[in-house]
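Protocol step 4 of 6: structure prediction from sequence.
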Amino acid sequence: MKEEEQHINNIKESIDLNQSLSRLYEMHSKIYYKIIHKYFSCNSFPDKKKELIEECKYHIYFAALEYNPEHLKKAKFSSYLANKARWLCLNFFNSEKKKTKLEYENIKDDSISTIPFLLKKERYNKIHEEIEKDSDERVAEIFKIRYFESKNNKLTAWKVVSSRLSLSVQGCINIHNKFLKKLQNRIEK
């Protein structure tokens, strides 16, 4: 039996727990840290990054308890631990994304929280006005189909847009991009 497997079994059976955990930590902490640093590389959420780094032994311990190579297509423990670390990061970012979304949905009437919301709404209204007053009527149709009639927060495919307007895909993209350049020039002035 390999040393790694022996330490994992010792942890599962609570035999020489501290020694086995320390050895697994020596063997695999680098891969755990590497994943955490990769996902938190832009210095976002430094407190959470620090917390995850400090909890390295804890996560190695639970990964050893849960690890079963028979159910994981014979995955190595290091791969399993790396995936656990990755999921820790992704779950955290998803929960933060939901929190941010809820904060926007629950905007209070105090001026501090409504200013950013009003600026975004004002910007949205300005862009919508520019789309509607553009001389090329296809612009409004392209934006309506591509962005406002999309499903599941996904953009409508260019193929769908082009077929509804009886234009080529490239033609729709060209009209879209030409308008965006025009809009950018108007905003910069």
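Step 5 (inspection) to follow. Residues 111-188 form a domain with the Arc Repressor Mutant, subunit A fold (CATH 1.10.10).
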